[in-house]
Each structure stands twice: as C-alpha cells, then as structure tokens.
Specification:
The protein has helices spanning 3-25, 32-64, 70-85, 91-107, 111-129, 135-149, 161-181, 185-202, 205-211, 215-231, 240-260, 268-279, 284-296, 306-330, 334-353, 361-375, 382-392, 398-421, 435-440, 442-455, 464-467, 476-482, 485-493, 503-508, 531-547, 560-569, 577-585, 587-596, 599-613. The protein is mainly alpha-helical and 615 residues long.
Length: 615
C-alpha cells in the first residue's frame, strides 16, 4: 500500500479511538479546575484530529480519481477491511471506496471480494438510514443484501468459511433491518420470505456438508429466528396466514430451546408466548397481570456485570412495551390503562433513568427514546412529562443538551432585558395579553423560554450519529439529515397537547426573521403567534453556535463582539432587529452575553457534565 495512504489510514483509525478516549476524560467527577483543563485539552486535540482526518480524506479522493489497478484495488480493499472489521462505520467514506471497486472485481468474477464489498455497502446504508426511518436508504440496503445472498449459487466456490458464513450474516441482517424498522406487513411478509429462504438453504446438502457442524453458523441461524420474534408488531386485523406462521415459529423455537436447555435470558419467549395467547383470544387483563408479575421478578441492574445488566434492562423495556401492545390490541378503556400504568411505569422509567452514561451508549439512547415515546402519551401531567423527556432523551446527549442549556442562558438574559425596557415585544404571544401581565410574569416567561431552549433541538436526539460526528466534515447527505431535526422534533411530540406551546419554536428556529430562507421551508414562521419567542431562540441559537470554542471542531469559535457585528449585518432579514438593537443598546446585557459566551461557558458546561456524570 502507498506508505502515505497506509499511514493516514492507521492514523484515522487511531484518531477515532482517541476521540472516544477524550470524551471519556471529561465524563468523570473532577474538580472544576481539573475538569476545565481536561475540556480545553479535549477541544484542542479534537480540532487537531479533525484537520488530520481532512488530510486523509483529501488523499483518498485524490487516489480514487486515478484509474484503478490491481495493486490499488488491493490497497483500498485493505483500508475497507481495516474500517469494517474494526467497527469504524462510516457510510460516506466506505461508499466512496467500495463503489469504484465493485465493478472492478465484478468484471473479474472475484466472488469473495464482490461479496465483501456488497456486504459492507449494505451494512453501512442500513446503519446510517434506519435511524432516520428513511425508506429509500432501507430499500437500498435490502437491495444490496439481496444481491449478496444471491451469490449463494457460488457457495462451493467460496473456499473460506468466513466468506460462506457471510451469506447467512446477510440473511440475518436483512431480517434485523425489518425487525428494527417495524414498517408494516409489506416488510414483515418479506421478513418471513428471507427467513424461509435462509432455512431452506441452510438445510441443503451442500451447506450441511461444508458447514452444518460449525457453531458460528448455527448461532446466526438461531439469532435470526429470535430477531423475527422481536420484530412482529401485532394488530387485531392481522392476516390469518401471517398469524399462523408467527405462532408456528414461536412453537418451533420454544421446543428447540427446551430440547437444548437454552435459558430465556431476555424474556423473549415469555413475551412472545403472551402475544400468541392474546391472538388465541386469551383474556387481555389476565395477560397484563402476568406481564406485571414478570416485571416485578426481573431484579436490580448491576452495570458492573455488563451482559447481565443489559439483558435485564431489555427485559424490563420490552416487557413494558408488550403491555402497551396489549392495550392497543385489546382496546382497553383509558381508566383501566391508567390504573395498570401506576403498577409498572414508575419502576421501568426509574430503571431507564438510572443507566449510567457510557453504558452501551448507542443502544441505550435508542431504548430510552423509545420508552419516552410509548409512555408520554399516557401521562397527563406536563411537568412530569417534560422531566422524563429531559432525563430519558435530552440528558443522554451531552452535545445537544449543553448547547440547549447555553441557548437558554442567552435567551433568558435577553428576555429579562426586554421585560424591563420593552415589554411590548411580547404582546400577542399566547397567554400574554397585556403589559402588566408581562411585567409581573418575568419568572413565568423566563421559565417558558428556558424550556423552549431545552426542547428546540430535541429532534437531534433522533440523528445522534450525524450530530455527534466531530472527527471529519459532514457530507451533503449528512447536512440534509441535520436539516431534518426541526421536523423530527415536532414529530416526536406532536401527538401530545402538553407540548403544543413549543411546537412552533421547535419547527421555526432555523427560519429567517423575514421568512424567506432557512428550513424547513414548509413551516411559515411569519404567521406564528409565537414569532417573538422563535426569533429569540433563533438569535440565541446562532450566538451560541458561533461563539462555541469547545464543542465544534470544524470551525473556530468567534468572540462575541465579532458575532454581534454579524447579527447587525443580518438584522431585518435573518434576525429580528428589535433583538439585535436590544443587545447592542443595552451595555449591561452586551457585557453579560460577552462573558457568558467566553469564560461563563465553562460554568454552564461543568454544571451540565456533572448532571450527566452523577445521574
């Protein structure tokens, strides 16, 4: 391999690990001074890593522009193996390398390498797009996997067992994609087709002769069936053939596990047996009682015993979700549901909120967000619901959470200045009908704006992998994903009337003051009764982003005076001129914001990190 390219590949991988290590250094309980030193060191190192990685990517792009030779193809294949085998997933870098290599090896009928490249591309599409619920990306992943498993016709020509095993890995991943997206019968029908195709091929004489006794192959087949069990979203009007196939699968897995003496460690078979009985018209209330009894026996989580703790957590979580599935299936009255909820929701919510930061981070973030989404519609107390959102979702994302805290600190200082000097600014905002009410309501208005700030970026919690990508620049598709966060935040909360007064701020904080630019274009901020609040959050959001000297590696933070000059340039088009003038004309406010966005930033960050670390 080109020595320079090899060196940068090794450096890129080492930098990914270093990014994780630097993050861990500030996620410990330290004194303010030691923590500040660690944070500054992290910021400087992350900026250095960003620049080094940009050089690596430039070299990659340069090499890919030249005609591919056998030597170069092998070099890039080695890079892909380094990334994929090491778990360093990155669709955009790996796609840039793999797509030019595929036709090269397809022309040569090099089946092991074709299989590897298709498998890599399929997995990276899946990893990136399934969190976004983007059907085009999911379909692309399934299409690539289908092409990969079609290579089973060359099974005997695959001399390495790991290449042959990849066929079944791909089958299992196809099932997992559908299990994760839960996208209805159109997908679920395909899932049973994939499962049956895999089982038929696994039972063939050729496969059994070559790999029938291989434990790794057997494990993939067992897990594939379990993935199917986890994926079914039962409904009262399901097709009978589909139900029969599901029940037959449950029966087969139960018999095989009992025969092999395999324990039901995550409660999967217990829950699927409950759902089968529900389909067979068992009394739903009896089944709910059994589920609640099961939840009471799961026991405490000891995160020092990682696998055991994870299994218990998933048992708690999925058992609670199963009860909600029974509610929907049986259409129970709300009064009964409310009584049942008292008996298991507090316990399971407490289990979720006590999970320490850094414990299976990606998986736990998704689990906590899902638990909030299923529980929140049943909670009629807005303050408790908001606290649950903070603890389960926002508080698990340090970058978004800290930015939201800073936006709140900036915005509330501007609010107080307006109430003292120009309370008319808030007239017309729902609930603020006269000047005296505004003057007397400084605490209530400040509290509302603080909550707007905490919620304005909640949609980013559904696109964490992109938001937290600090080690390289973002590609256009990733920027498009970032632009989805206002709508994703709205979608997260839209069915809950308790959050209605935040909807316009969530959707409108990236629209320009004059309504001509920004995103999402489908939202008309000019007609919103909350426009003054939207404008406040927009300015505070921009001020924090532009002055951030600690968390944004792709750009150096600016001083507040420079940022204010930029606000003036955009006054009347991008930014509300009243807000810009208030900041410029109120010397005390200007100096306060100047301190807050420099030295004061450390104090806000430290408070936030301690909340997360000491949860």
């Amino acid at each position: 391999m080109n020595n320079n390219l090899k060196a940068y590949t090794d450096k890129y991988i080492a930098n990914r690990q270093l990014c994780w290590e630097m993050d861990q250094q500030v996620m410990v309980d330290l004194s303010f001074s030691k923590w500040k030193e660690a944070l500054i060191s992290r910021s400087e190192m992350m900026r250095k890593i960003f620049l080094e990685n940009e050089q690596f990517l430039a070299d990659i792009r340069k090499e890919l522009k030249v005609e591919i030779t056998e030597e170069k193809a092998e070099q890039f294949l080695e890079i892909l193996h380094s990334f994929y085998d090491g778990g360093y997933d990155d669709l955009f870098i790996m796609r840039a390398i793999a797509e030019p290599l595929l036709p090269y090896y397809e022309e040569k009928n090099d089946y092991p390498k074709i299989l590897f490249l298709r498998k890599v591309l399929a997995f990276e599409y899946y990893e990136f797009y399934w969190r976004l619920s983007r059907e085009d990306g999911i379909e692309k992943a399934l299409e690539l996997y289908e092409k990969t498993v079609a290579m089973k016709e060359h099974y005997a020509e695959l001399k390495d067992a790991s290449d042959r095993r990849a066929i079944f890995v791909c089958y299992r991943n196809m099932v997992a994609i559908i299990a994760d997206c839960k996208a209805g019968y159109r997908y679920q029908d395909r899932m049973f087709k994939y499962l049956n195709d895999a089982m038929t091929f696994w039972s063939s004489d050729l496969v059994q002769k070559l790999d029938g006794d291989n434990a790794e192959f057997i494990e993939h087949m067992d897990r594939m069936e379990t993935d199917v069990l986890l994926s079914i979203d039962l409904q009262a009007d399901m097709d009978e053939d589909f139900v029969d196939e599901y029940k037959a699968l449950v029966k087969r897995i139960k018999e095989n596990r009992e025969k092999d003496g395999v324990e039901d460690e995550e409660g999967v078979l217990f829950r699927t047996d409950i759902m089968c009985r529900l389909l067979d018209k068992a009394p739903p209330r009896k089944l709910i009682e059994e589920m609640i009894d099961h939840i009471s026996t799961i026991g405490e989580l000891d995160t020092t015993k990682e696998n055991d703790a994870l299994q218990k957590l998933l048992d708690y979580h999925n058992s609670g979700c199963t009860i909600f599935d029974i509610y929907k299936f049986a259409k129970l009255p709300q009064e009964e549901i409310a009584e049942y909820n008292k008996r298991f929701i507090p316990q399971i919510t407490n289990v979720h909120t006590r999970i320490p930061f850094g414990f299976w981070t990606g998986l736990i973030d998704n689990v906590c967000a899902e638990w909030f989404s299923v529980v929140a519609p049943y909670d009629q107390i807005p303050s408790r619901k908001a606290e649950m959102l903070l603890k389960l979702v926002l508080g698990r994302q340090p970058i978004t959470y800290i930015h939201s805290l800073m936006v709140g600190e900036i915005a509330t200082r501007i609010v107080i200045a307006f109430i003292k000097e120009n309370p008319e600014f808030f007239l017309g905002v729902p609930g603020l009908g006269d000047l005296q009410q505004i003057k007397d309501g400084m605490y209530e208005i400040s509290d509302y704006v603080t909550k707007c700030a905490l919620l304005h970026d909640c949609g980013k919690c559904e696109i964490v992998e992109v938001v937290n990508r600090q080690h390289r620049h973002l590609y256009d598709e990733e920027f498009d994903v970032i632009k989805m966060h206002p709508d994703k935040g709205y979608e997260m909360l839209k069915d809950d009337p308790g959050f209605e007064k935040y909807f316009d701020v969530i959707r409108g904080h990236h629209r320009s003051y004059d309504g001509k630019t920004g995103y999402p274009s489908s939202f008309n901020n000019l007609s919103s009764p909350y426009k003054p609040i939207i404008d406040l959050i927009t300015v505070a959001d921009c001020v924090d982003a532009a002055t951030d000297i600690l968390g944004r590696n792709y750009v150096k933070g600016k001083d507040f005076t420079t940022v204010y000059d930029e606000l003036k340039l955009g006054s009347g088009t991008l930014y509300n001129p009243e807000i810009v003038d208030m900041i410029g004309n109120n010397k005390s406010l200007f100096e306060d914001l100047k301190y807050l966005t420099s030295e004061g930033r450390y104090e806000v960050y430290y408070r936030a990190y301690r909340e997360i670390v000491l949860r």
